Amino acid sequence: MDNRMRIGELARRAQVTIRTVRYYESIGLLPQGMREGSGQHYYTEDTLVRLRKIDQLKKLGLSLDEIREVVDFYFIDPSGVQSKQKVLSLLRQYLAQTDQKINELQQFSAELRTHIDYFERCFT
Amino acid sequence: MDNRMRIGELARRAQVTIRTVRYYESIGLLPQGMREGSGQHYYTEDTLVRLRKIDQLKKLGLSLDEIREVVDFYFIDPSGVQSKQKVLSLLRQYLAQTDQKINELQQFSAELRTHIDYFERCFT
DNA sequence: GATGAACGTTACGTTAACTTCATGTTTGTG
DNA sequence: CACAAACATGAAGTTAACGTAACGTTCATC
Q1: Which ipTM was obtained for this model?
Q2: CATH architecture label of A1-62
Q3: Which nucleotides in chain D lie less than 7 Å from some protein C-beta?
């Protein structure tokens, strides 16, 4: 596989802008691409996977700060972590929040259905 | 019931700041409280209910613009609306978006559970 | 070896949803 | 009536998450 990907290809394949990639690098959410002499950065498939994951989490409504807290769990090896209890409690916290939000959204969905029914009934 | 509520009480009972109430009034999301002579605004329970609904929808991730589009449906009579087809398609669009988001969140929830399982298994 | 597309860096601009500040008016309680 | 708490209004500041502009460098291909 070709592991010499520049920022343009990385951005295009992840469906984000170049500016976004650089912004994520600047805040440490994405690792800097290796610079090979000339000044240009080169990226790997791993970075692409991570970038896509970040984008996915963002669409769920997580802020970049929140994403920073959880995205590593997709890529790190748990056996190397010292404070597993802390990580676990963080994960459980996010799980509770997520499930709570699912419930609220389901209620909103039901309300929308009610409104739709009301309006549909007006056509009879 | 006492229907002479001023902005402080309204804000406090809806768990938002006074500034937020005024901001919502300024962008037309909340009706202006009636001014009784002196310049101060007085609000009703209806406004409080509306304000709470706005806050609830905001927590679901809707923007104030989006809230403006749907919040009226909680309080108006459908039979009085002229462009019912338009409203219906709008509501169906929000329903689809919401259900989509529920699905994605459920997937995220499952992923979180997987990670938690991983970490828990490390303690054995 | 020229030349256009892609890249790098710095800095200012933008939008949403407010907050903070400044300053003046109204209310209500002792 | 004094006086603090609550209210009104306007303008400027804030944060997140980038977008846009300006300007110089590098890559690749003809």
Answers
A1: 0.84
A2: Orthogonal Bundle (1.10)
A3: 6-9, 16-20, 25-27
